[in-house]
Specification:
There is one protein chain. With about 525 residues, the chain is an alpha+beta fold. The protein is built from twelve helices and 27 strands. It has helices spanning about 15-20, 25-40, 65-80, 100-115, 180-185, 230-245, 250-255, 285-295, 305-320, 450-460, 485-490, 525-529; strands spanning about 45-50, 85-90, 120-130, 130-135, 150-155, 165, 170-175, 175, 190-200, 205, 210, 225-230, 260-265, 275, 280-285, 330, 355-360, 365, 385-390, 395-405, 405-415, 425-430, 440-445, 465, 475-480, 500-505, 510-515. Strands 2-1-3-9-13-16 form a six-stranded mixed beta sheet, with helices on both faces. Helix 3 packs parallel to helix 8 and helix 5 runs parallel beside helix 6 (about 230-245). It is globular and about 70 Å long. The protein starts with 15 loop residues before the first helix and ends with a helix. The relative contact order is 0.11.
Amino acid sequence: MSTLKRRHFLQFAGSTLAAIGLSQFDFLRQADRYGQALAQSTPRKLALLVGINGYQGGVNSLNGCLTDVDLQKYLLIHRFGFNPGDILIVSDGSDSQAAPTRENILRAFEEHLIQQAKPGDVVLFHYSGHGDRIADPNPLGTADCPTKDCDLNGTMVPIDAAPEQETADTVAVPDIMGRSLFLLMSAINTDNLTAILDSCHSGAGTRGNVIVRAANSRLRSGNQQKLVPSQQELAYQEQWLSRLDLSPEQFQTQRSKIAKGVVLGSAERNQLAIDASFEGFSAGGFTYLLTRYLWQMTSEQSADTVYANLRRSTTSLSAEKRSTPQIPVFEYNPARNAQQPLYFLSPQPIASEAVITQVDPNQIEFWLGGVSSQNLQGAGQGNRFTLLDGQGQAVAEIQQTDRRELYGYGKLVSGDPATVQAGQLLREKVIGMPTDLTLKLGVDPSLDSEAADIRSALGNSRFIKLVPLNQGEPIDYLLARFTEAYRSQNADATQLPPIGSVGLLFQDQSLALDRSFGRANESAVEAIT
């Protein structure tokens, strides 16, 4: 895995990571304490989950943020042992404890996380919603922020996103700045802190048919106004500087070099985080891939292994959805912290893909958050799940009869009904196969000169369809010749094919099946044969 450059996390203007001050320096200082914390028992696990779909104030709505909250909630409870009572949800969904206004988000962070967390506790903060970039009242110097937009600071956009004050030159918005998030995270009394931020920080709302998590511009079109923080936001930061006994000069120094815990961001600076449509449901592409991957883990995996796989799957998904590249970011010290698990916890060791959420005499409801999206096609009729006891032993079997979004519904087909209870894990046993098994294949530009031969070689195949690129129709893989450019792009792969060989890539040109490549300089027809 390639390491991220140190400057990538210094003020990272427009990216929440740098906006809260995350850097390698912090991890070098705190890696030893992380190891000590992981070695001891954790008396409490606290989580604050924020998700916003239905924005107000002229900002376009999103579709998948409430699903993100559910994905995290069920993952934390059933794979990482969180007590449901220690998970606070602030969203515009039906199970929310408070609406996701600016005031409620900040109050929840203070009361649920800061006031309750003790040393050694595990704390998780998740935000899914729009992001934006606004003027930083005290930008970092060019030495700490060597980018062209150092005067901008990343924000989280609350549901009450309408501008509060407007002049000819500025529009004051109620966003929660990265500066504030840095101060809030600094106040939490544990180092076992994870923040997950599924939003982006550019001014666009959509790209083609893909919704992205960047707030629509709240500026009047055609003028030179800029977004600035509200007076309420600046006063809030002053309040926290006083509570933390930080002078403005100390804060300015620390926010470029010191951060607490681990932060996972959904996209690099100036990239868009997609609000993706899957098989009958919407979710943040990053959150869905992250939580599904963690759900399916049964033992500790090193951070670098998880990140390498998550990076590959997220960039491939963004290419599939016809968005601009989206590469998740995660900072740690490769020498000391790369082998530690995410969330500062080990997952439950029982392999499963689903969990029962409700049981009544007529049907069983279960959450499908660990099931691959490819296995969610249709209503799921014919799918079968093995019901597991607390030791992971099979005790019954459930047949799926319907699906609505990520909730499955079914009936018991074997076993004692008395053994079926909410909270029990399910393991996939039989998957109903889709009726269309055609492999949709695109021809990479590296094979343009052999396109006619490829069409001839595959023209009679019943199971492979050649799909033109950039026409809106999804494809499964690219047939490509492996070039020096692709070698550098896949530098983090453990094994690389020979230069000039032909095989399968994902749409972002990362390796899909490295063993599909043969010898160097073979023809495309030879490779197909």
